[in-house]
DNA sequence: CGCGGGGGAGACACATGTCAGGACCGCCAG
DNA sequence: CTGGCGGTCCTGACATGTGTCTCCCCCGCG
């Protein structure tokens, strides 16, 4: 066992007397939380009335209402969401299962998601599967036991038994995966094929012909981007120049694939990577092979991760409107929670090319080979 | 209202018949979830016995145990965590309030946190305050209503009324902030002062004297790093060369501060930034002013964010063992949940210098000015 | 036959929302 | 003036799904 690099664990100085007066504790840890009953007693009413006041019922006299509110405030009363959930049959919780919290794409998506869910009175619970199907199932299991009102699957297709069963119990939105033939599952994706086309078109405008593609990991998004690349190349009558190498959505994978591509003769003058992270690997490979970007090689990524906007990198890339996608997912989910029998919907957002400094005109003499 | 860039929302094709057979639904959305009662009836026992079996009681005959387990499996029974929480008085939930989910530092910390919490049977609930004190209070309010068993504050010091009150009800761990005079609050930090010393020592070893510091936002971590810088400079008898500029933990802030520093005459030959993100801004400023790194200027960051390891950036930085910190926080919290009356503890981890390519020897003739 | 113990059942508690009904008041008609 | 009626305000009982505790039954053994 590798111990954590902890070098100090010390009790902090404490003034026991201050503690007693500040917290008004009995010395046995946190004080018990006041219940609706305590409020009722203090206000001299029944607990039902307290409930009515707190739920904003109009059939309460102003006199009692004030008494209840005052008592609640004085006691620092906070309704117990657990008990409320039990009787309401709703938890107002949404579970988001993320394939990889590290990917900044998901973080920004979650911003938009949480923002919108919050507006609908829903709270976000995040689980991280770390790309491990076992963790996926376990996290979903936890969500189901908690009786979350909705489920959001990020970069995860419901293929396992557990996940499929989950979608039959709980309104679900899948993000970034297509081809899901399940009812009560809405889908949010960007138009990957169009995004790929934008990238290729941009490179063609700069005179590039030998445009290669590094494919992403086994996911429908990667498949669609590759397909978009192929279609666009053919449309520009560049079918003879089609080159596809396989990467795995990682920087190292991108680096390896780029090495392979750039060792060809003639080598590509431009590379469209499945991913910003992969594109970063391409940049590294280019440096290692003594090629400068964009003079010798143009590079395009996908996602417009904040990485790509860093000055030193300045990567031309395809932007997915992540926040908007998050908001869409929230809207679809709220809708489905309201009426679970709704027809499954597919919401597709439009990607946009962001031109930075990793792309430029084709090198002189490179296209007459 | 700026509409989201949605271009398609279409009903997906559905085979209603398939739906009916697959989901066995009555056409009114998700089927009701089986309860412990349903399992009891199917197994021909009382619900108490089902509970005993599921909780692993030894005083159950093998015959009945099998009957119960079979019935539960056939019904797809999953215990209702809400009801269980209500009776147990524990939710097994931990709320983490993060100042900024975008900062990769927090994401990696959360990895370690979740990993360890999971081992203790606790689940992680994440709230994002976006640096807004109003959001902080609201998120904490939500956590309190949910009756989370523990609270983790990331980059947030409990100063507001609501937060202070929260710590008196709920075991709390604060990460990255010091000087908290509250009971039942444990603290996890790295030794910021030591980290700063490591950075300065490294630069001094390379012959640098005119070493500047860009201070972070108003937080105790930033204050300690600055103090560490000052102490280290004095220890090396470099007090006359002390230069401190203010940044705000953002890339843009770092860029501005670097511009100011690099416009001085004589200008610093090295900059120690409060943060990796700030350091990125310094790199940008250097490029803009025609200075190359590390030939003309050495740059050191803090955090060892994954950003710093990107090949094109390759930033020398001070590593905080984030995952280990996450695990420490989890351990402290579990401990305190077990015994809330524990004395408050401070756990300090040791930072480590990671040398990459943004630092090098002092430029020729720069130190004889 | 009595007693002990294993195995199982029923009742209660957790904190809240809801709903049916009850108390009280005022107004109107007899 | 009084009884009835309608409306307002409030209360008590019940329900949500589970864990636990007490009690009971029955079987086996002494």
Low-confidence stretches of chain A: 1-7, 13-28
> Which oligomerization state do the chains in this entry correspond to?
homodimer
Query: Any idea what the radius of gyration of chain A is?
Result: 28 Å
* Helix proportion of chain A: 40-55%
Within CATH, the superfamily of the largest domain in chain A carries the name Response regulator
Largest interface: A-B, 87 and 87 residues
Instruction: Specify the CATH architecture of the largest domain in chain A.
Output: 3-Layer(aba) Sandwich
Task: Note the total helix count of chain A.
Answer: 14
- Tally of domains of chain A: 3
CATH class of the largest domain in chain A: Alpha Beta
How are strands sequenced across the largest beta sheet of chain A? Answer: 3-2-4-5-6-12
**What is the tally of beta strands of chain A?**
13
Structural class of chain A: alpha/beta
Describe this structure in words.
The structure is a homodimer of 369-residue chains. Chain A has 369 residues and is α/β, with parallel strands linked by helices. Chain A folds into three domains: 29-79, 434 Repressor (Amino-terminal Domain) (Orthogonal Bundle); 90-188 and 323-349, 3-Layer(aba) Sandwich (Rossmann fold), CATH 3.40.50.2300; 192-320, Response regulator (Rossmann fold, 3-Layer(aba) Sandwich). Chain A has helices at residues 16-23, 36-43, 47-54, 62-75, 81-88, 104-119, 133-146, 161-169, 192-205, 220-235, 251-262, 276-288, 306-309, 322-338; strands spanning 6-11, 93-98, 123-128, 150-154, 172-175, 185-190, 211-215, 243-246, 270-273, 298-303, 316-319, 345-349, 352-354. The model of chain A is unreliable at 1-7 and 13-28 (pLDDT under 50). Chain B binds a DNA duplex (30 and 30 nucleotides) through helix 3 and helix 5.
């Amino acid at each position: 066992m590798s111990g954590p690099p902890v070098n100090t664990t010390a009790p902090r100085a404490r003034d026991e007397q201050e503690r007693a007066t500040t917290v008004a504790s009995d010395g046995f840890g946190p004080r018990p939380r006041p219940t609706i009953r305590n409020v009722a007693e203090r206000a001299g009413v029944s607990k039902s009335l307290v409930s009515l006041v707190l739920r904003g019922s109009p059939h309460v006299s102003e006199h009692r209402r004030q008494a209840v509110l005052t008592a609640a405030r004085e006691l620092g009363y906070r309704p117990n969401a657990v008990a409320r959930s039990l009787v309401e049959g709703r938890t107002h919780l949404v579970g988001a299962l993320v394939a990889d919290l590290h990917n900044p794409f998901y973080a920004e998506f979650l911003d938009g998601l949480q923002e919108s869910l919050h507006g609908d009175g829903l709270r976000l619970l995040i689980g991280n599967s770390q790309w491990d199907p076992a963790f996926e199932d376990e996290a979903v299991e936890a969500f189901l036991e908690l009786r979350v009102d909705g489920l959001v699957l990020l970069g995860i297709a419901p293929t396992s038994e557990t996940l499929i069963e989950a979608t039959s119990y709980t309104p679900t939105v899948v993000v970034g995966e297509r081809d899901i033939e399940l009812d009560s599952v809405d889908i949010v994706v960007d138009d990957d094929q169009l995004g790929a086309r934008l990238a290729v078109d941009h490179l063609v405008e700069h005179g590039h012909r030998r445009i290669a593609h590094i494919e992403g990991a086994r996911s429908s998004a990667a498949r669609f981007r590759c397909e978009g690349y192929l279609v666009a190349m053919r449309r520009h009558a560049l079918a003879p120049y089609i080159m596809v190498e396989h990467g795995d959505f990682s920087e190292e994978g991108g680096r390896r694939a780029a090495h392979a591509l750039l060792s060809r003769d003639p080598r590509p003058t431009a590379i469209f990577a499945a991913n910003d992270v992969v594109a970063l690997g391409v940049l590294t490979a280019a440096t290692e092979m003594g090629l400068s970007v964009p003079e010798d090689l143009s590079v395009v990524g996908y996602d417009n991760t904040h990485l790509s906007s860093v000055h030193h990198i300045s990567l031309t890339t395809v932007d997915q409107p992540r926040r908007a996608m998050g908001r869409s997912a929230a809207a679809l989910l709220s809708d489905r929670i309201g009426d679970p029998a709704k027809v499954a919907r597919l919401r597709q957002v439009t990607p946009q090319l962001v031109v930075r400094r990793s792309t430029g005109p084709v090198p002189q003499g490179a296209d007459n080979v």
